[in-house]
Structure formats: structure tokens, C-alpha cells
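Hi R.,

Here's the input for the KG4 complex you asked about:
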Amino acid sequence: MQGSGVIVLGVETSCDETGIALVEDGKRTLSEKLASQEELHAPYSGVVPELASRQHIKILGPLLEGALKESGCALKQVGLVAVTKGPGLAGCLLTGLSFAKGLAYGLGIPILGVNHIEAHIHSCFLDGEVDYPSLALIVSGGHTVLAVMRGWRSYELLGQTRDDAVGEAYDKVASMLGLPFPGGPAIEAWAKTGKDSRSPAPRFPRPLLKSDDFNFSFSGLKTAVLYWLKKRGGSPISDTDVAAVASAFQEAVIEVLLKKTFAAARRLKVRTILLAGGVAQNETLRQEFRREAEGSGFNLIYPPKRYCGDNAVMVAALAYRIFTDGGRDDLSLEVVPSLGLC
Ligand code: KG4
Ligand code: ZN
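And here is the predicted structure with KG4 in place:
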């Protein structure tokens, strides 16, 4: 039940998850609703923007009603509407923004647009403060970003993907292996069974591992998987092969992410590492980062799994802090599909 603080209504529609949350004072979640569109997009092995936008429109209202009911809040108690303004799919962002604007206008309350990548970083703050400087690795279906945070909202981009995002590579490799969309959880599950497989899966390349910068690239790795599968001459892929490829692919991804992130932290003398975004739900990734952090004296923070993927709690919580610092937008707020972190 709510107290007497500012209740922020968070709205998230940047891709294929519709999220609504009511969060009080950036800390107490009164209600959170998340509707995944996985089933809708599964036949296409990827997100279909037009279908995603239409689904957001359909579900936003019922989700809000559900959240109000669950929290016991009345709409008139909401003090701020927070909405993802970008980056993301233009049509999807527009559905959330229009919904948010309608509410802000109707209720006569402020609106605040939030950067989606920053919201993912903020999911590491949900349990408390974070030391600065810290190094944030955001790994999701749309982004692979490594950035230093020198202070509250002070970001310096260190590196990003030159082509596919990590989650996108997971999804595409899963599709090649005939696994369901989204591919991340499926590859993770198969990789577990393939770890000790005797199938002759190759050692896939570790793209840009030795480059002197902190950028990433995953499309070559994805192509290496494709060639390995093609070389087999069209014979059906056995379960053993699926498991072996999933395991070898995931091993390559995690090695690149881990080595580059910790190398950056050492070079910049940063002791705190933040790991967030949909791919950060991967248990093997979390374990490997934890092992390296503990072994080398780094402080590692990642959110609970349910706040790694897209959600509206991180949007509302970040917006509250920006709002208390004096930040707000007006009804001229627009979506910025290619918004960068800084
Ligand atoms: O952050 P998110 O929900 O949406 C974007 O902002 O993109 O991330 C979705 C991505 C998908 O590509 C999905 O396959 C990946 O996160 N993902 C995973 C896992 N769970 C979700 N990747 C690897 N392992 C997982 N367990
Ligand atoms: Zn995201």
C-alpha cells in the first residue's frame, strides 16, 4: 500500500515488452505489470515492429487498470508519468509516449522521457547506491554498450557493438539451430547440456578480443556458426550438435564480454562493474562475471533477473531521481529512436 511520497507511473514500450509500473519515491514498487510479446513474434524468429506497436496499443490500458487495482492507488494520486523516449523501435516508442502524454495532459501532471539504456543501467541502482566511478556493460537485444559512469548521470562511452547486439546474435543463432524465439534462454539451456558434449563443434572466433579498443562485434561469430552448420551438408541437426554449437557460441560470447570488460576496468582503474540488459539474465554470464570479480577484487552489481530485461520499474525509478533533481519535460516531448547514452 502506498505512503505519502511521489507516485511515478512508468511506461515502457521500446521493443516487444509492454511494461507499466507504479513506484513510490523511486524505491517502493506498488505494482508492476509486464506483458511479453514473445508468442506473437515467435513465428518470425524476431520482433515485427508493426505487430509490436499494435500489441502495445491493445495492452497498455488493461495493464494500467491492473496495476491501479493491485496497488490500491487511484489515478489521481500519480504525481509523474515517466516514459521511455528512446532508443527503440519508432512505432513502439510512439505508442508509449502517446499513452503517457494523454495521461499527463488529462491528469495535469508532469511527464518525463527516459533514455532506455540509462534505465537499464539504473536497474543496478534499485537495491541501493553504487560507487563511482563504475563501469557499466549493457547487453540486450538492441544494444551492447560499455560506458564509464563518473558520477550520477555522468557517462562516457567506451565502446559499443559495430554490428549485431549480443542478444540479437543469440536470437539469430537460435533461429539457425531451430530453437524458439527469443533465442537467449533457449541457447542458455542447450549450452548447459552441451558443455561436456563430444560432438566436434569448433572453437568459434572471439571477435575483437585482441583489439586495442573496447568495441564489440558479433556478426562474424554468427556467420561462423552459419558456415559450420552449412559444412555439414544439410543433414538434420542432431540434439548433440545443437547443444555443442550452443555451448561453443555462448563460450565465445562470454569470453569476449568478460575479458574486454575487466580489461577496461583495469585500464581505467574502476573497481565497480555494473552488468544489465536482457542478456544479463544469463546465469553462466552472471557466474563467470562473479567469479572473475571475486577473484580480482572487483565489486560486481547486477539486478535480479526480472529487472534485467525491459521493464517499467527501472523507467519509473530513474525518472523519480531525475525529477527530484529538477528534470521534467512537457507535452512537446518526442521519441528519439536512435538516442545514444551520451
Ligand atoms: O533488454 P531486453 O529485454 O530488450 C532490449 O532492450 O533489447 O533484451 C532482450 C534480449 C533478447 O535478445 C534475448 O534473447 C536476450 O535478451 N536474453 C538472453 C537471455 N534472456 C534473454 N540472452 C542470453 N541468455 C539469456 N538467458
Ligand atoms: Zn532493453
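One thing worth noting: The mean pLDDT is 95.

Cheers,
M.
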